[in-house]
Specification:
The chain is of the alpha+beta class and 531 residues long. 15% of the residues lie in helices and 37% in strands. Strand 22, helix 7 and strand 23 form a beta-alpha-beta unit.
């Protein structure tokens, strides 16, 4: 009996040992769908050079990147990122993260530089491409912009004596690749001791345009007025897009070298001793009359100031007083002065006013030390009226030194003259050289004997004869900004100024201290600024 055996074709092939055919399961493990091949990524472009781009608001550039699947299987985009996130590039979301075979998608890359520099990084695309898991798009670009730089950024003046000064340049440079426009300055400090000099003489007015690689200098000045630390900041505004305001810091401290206190007591009533020396030669009749007729103007100035004055009269050939000393209490004082001033014209033609004043003020003379005329605390005013040169034998400085020796304070001596114009004379009047130089040396007046307005002459000379109650000379050179003035202990913030020529504190007419008050002036002394 024959048994029939049936084999399926597959089993028959196996049984025959045939391996020419392979059966593959092409179903996806995930979707259970058939997958017909591998994906293959292709990116265009693979390099983007954005070139040079001006930095500024809205100044950006954008390029498109195409991602294509040139394989047979679906391409999956697993990640998209910048390799260096500090670089000024950004990207958009990709159009699709699953790209079927033969299709493509896109994303964009934007370059927005923030300063003048070269930028570069990569966009990294991670996918399921079995041959190229990571694909790179190289990015490059250059920003065009100014960059401000201040040098030094920080500076210390150290310790300076109060009254000394220091100056430090601050250099403003443009280290970028476009024009820097400096639009404004400010100096921020809580101290009055530091200040900024923007050097306008050299730099010109704002705004300044500073080209790439160029610079300008400004200066910070420091003059400490106290012994406290000081700090300040130069603040510079510009078109630098990354730093619209740049700062540089300065610091320093003052040190007191020394201080001084001057104390003055205002006179209850100021007094002046006035010695007239009148030329009594033959040419002086008209001048003597002018003097006599206008003495009232002279006396009125002194009376208006409540001055305690004395007047003595001598001539150019006699050192003795022509009459009694004239005071505000003299009966008919104008008549008395007229009688003495009209000295006649029969005197010597060899006029010697300096010598007569010198002799009169010697010990034992009518106007000398110990006399009723010369008072210790009074101002001495010597006034000559002449139309001829001074024939006194001594040099003018010899006489002047003698007059100064009569007072402890040389400021209490003033010499004035009504004489021929200096240096050429006037009409028939000749200049008086000796009295010209003495008037200059003492701050007196040298007025023309040829003038018609003797009233104003005598008013001016009367003013010069008064003790200056408004000015107080200091004993040491002060640091002016540190001066503190007190009257009877009360600080005076206004009504006075410092006179650096006379080294004095001068009060305004409306603020002159009253008689009997105590004026205190306290101030810092200069140290050695070279140390």
């Amino acid at each position: 009996m024959r048994t029939s055996i049936y084999m399926s074709p597959v089993l028959a092939l196996v049984a025959l040992g045939c391996n020419e055919y392979t059966i593959e399961d092409k179903r996806s493990d995930i979707t259970d769908e058939v997958d017909d091949g591998d994906p293959d990524i292709e990116v265009d472009p693979v390099k983007i050079n954005f070139g040079e781009l001006a930095v500024g608001e809205g100044e950006t550039k954008t390029e498109t990147v195409t991602v294509k699947n040139v394989g047979e299987g679906s391409l999956s985009i697993d990640d998209l990122y910048l390799a260096d996130t500090a670089q000024p590039f950004s990207y958009s979301a990709i159009g699709a993260i699953l790209i079927p075979a033969g299709t493509s998608t896109t994303f964009t890359v934007t370059y927005a530089p923030i300063t003048a520099e070269d930028n570069g990084t990569n966009i990294v695309i991670e996918s399921n491409d079995p041959d190229e898991a990571s694909t790179l798009v190289k990015l490059n670009g250059s920003g065009v912009a100014p960059i401000i730089q201040l040098d030094p950024v920080s500076y210390s003046f150290g310790t300076l004596y109060i009254g000394c000064e220091g100056s430090q340049p601050v250099t403003i440079s443009n280290i970028g690749n476009a024009d820097l426009v400096v639009s404004d300055f400010d100096y921020v400090t809580a101290s009055d001791d530091m200040s900024l000099d923007d050097n306008t003489v050299v730099n010109g007015d704002l705004p300044w345009t500073i080209g790439p690689g160029d610079s300008r200098e400004v200066y910070v000045n420091y003059a400490p007025l106290d012994d406290y630390p000081d700090e300040g900041f130069v603040v510079v505004g510009s078109n630098d897009p990354l730093q619209s305001e740049a700062q540089a810091q300065q610091a320093g401290s003052g040190e007191l070298y020394g201080e001084n206190l001057d104390v003055f007591e205002q006179s209850l009533q100021s007094s002046t001793d006035i010695l007239f020396v009148i030329d009594n030669s033959c040419s002086m009749a008209e001048e003597q009359t002018n003097l006599a007729d206008n003495f009232a103007s002279f006396a009125a100035v002194l009376a208006g100031a409540d001055y305690d004055y004395q007047v003595g009269v001598i001539t150019t050939d006699n050192p003795d007083f022509r009459g009694d000393i004239i005071t505000p209490d003299t009966p008919d004082l104008e008549d008395e002065f007229v009688a003495q001033a009209l000295a006649g014209t029969s005197g010597s033609g060899d006029e010697r006013p300096s010598e007569m004043a010198y002799n009169s003020t010697q010990a034992g003379g009518d106007a000398g030390p110990g006399s009723d005329f010369l008072r210790d605390d009074s101002k001495l005013s010597i006034i000559v009226v002449t139309d001829e040169p001074d024939s006194s034998t001594g040099d003018w400085s010899t006489y002047m030194n003698h007059f100064w020796s009569l007072k402890d304070d040389t400021d209490l001596v003033v010499v004035s003259a009504i004489a021929g114009d200096w240096p050429s004379g006037c009409a028939t009047a000749s200049p008086s050289e000796k009295f010209y130089y003495m008037s200059v040396a003492t701050g007196g007046l040298y007025l023309s004997v040829c003038a018609t307005d003797w009233a104003s002459h005598l008013e001016s000379i009367a003013e010069a004869s008064k003790i200056d109650l408004s000015s107080f000379e200091l004993t040491q050179p002060p640091v002016p900004e540190t001066i503190e003035v007190r009257i009877d202990g009360v600080i005076q913030t206004d009504g006075w100024t410092y006179n650096d020529i006379d080294q004095s504190v001068d009060f305004d007419d409306d603020h002159i201290p009253s008689g009997g008050t105590v004026i205190e002036v306290e101030y810092a002394l200069y140290g050695n600024c070279s140390e």
